[in-house]
Amino acid sequence: MENMLNKEVSIQIKKHLKNMVNGVKIILFTQKNMSNCVHCDETEKLLSEISDLSSKIIVEKKKLDSEEAKEYGIKFTPSFVILNQNNEFNGFVFNGIPAGHEINSFLSALITVSGFKQDFDVAVLERINNIKKPVDIKVFVTVSCPHCPGAVSTAHLLTNKNDYISGAVYDANSFQDLARKFNVSGVPKIVINDSIELLGNQPLEEFLKNIETI
Predict the structure, then answer these.
(1) Is residue 90 domain-shared with residue 144, that is, in the same domain?
(2) Are 82 and 37 found together in one domain?
């Protein structure tokens, strides 16, 4: 299989990954029979190439029937999670290959999980911390969507800041049955607790306003 990343893109990603603070572990979940898993080979290849660009990234591969898959609530393949230096999971699952524009939200997640400190308005941080009920955020995207990474990064940020919040991103083209279930006709589509629906790259304020109604 040819390289997923050309030399120019690899140089750009390597430069971006220098913002990582601590090491992270990516656990990729695939099928026993790889021929039954669309994009599993490509996802594994892409994650491997990105891990080669930073000594702070390691990649492990597990099967869908593994104990780790149960622990992290993995239901689809290819899927992966990012653990911090203490092997802690922040509740966010990536479903599908993070190619095209989605590589941006993936790289942002790597840096966030590595411990990179972000500045937050105190009032906003207080609102996030005040969420004390289970919240699930699904973000449907396509790899050709330039506005999708922003929605994914906001959802990931919320899961990273509050243990009550879990989230996942789904490539709508790869998981069409799920996309149909949630009537995805445009992306990014954000679904909160399977009932609240938002369309477009919504700001953090809009996420919080809707979560606070639950």
Answers:
(1) no
(2) yes
pTM assigned to the model? 0.96
Whether residues 67 and 135 fall in one domain: no
Tens digit of each residue's pLDDT (9 = 90 or more) over 19-57: 999 999 999 999 977 677 889 999 999 999 999 999 999
pLDDT in tens, 66-109: 999 999 999 999 999 999 999 999 999 999 999 999 999 999 99
The structure tokens listed for 116 are 């990179």
